[in-house]
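This part of the workshop introduces the protein records we will be handling. A record pairs a protein's sequence with a compact description of its fold. Comparing a sequence with its tokens is the quickest way to learn the format. The record below serves as our worked example for the rest of this section:
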Amino acid sequence: MQQVVDLQNDPRFSALGVQLLSISPDPVGAWQKEGEKLGITEPMLSDQGNRVWFRYGSSSWMMPTSEPGHTFILVDAKGRVAWVRDYGATEHGGAMYVAPKEVVQQLADHLGG
């Protein structure tokens, strides 16, 4: 969850004008408690049944434990997937934390900024 904290506090991310929504398969209570503890102010969604995960095709980056990976999905105003990057995937280095600078740069490149 440190990724969410760091992105929400990064002025470069804020300048992109995109909404950060953190989604986890964790139960609502645990997810909410951890978010409050870390000072997360961005929206958080509990997706215990992984419906959102499957809806946006993130299952292709499933971790070896059959759990959702660490995927960033940019959804446009019409609800269409405009950009996807799963940093936890083997082909992307298997990282579970990515420096905000890298996420911001990739989003900015995609958004044309």
User: Anything to note?
Assistant: The first strand starts at residue 22 and ends at 24. The chain has one domain: 2-111.
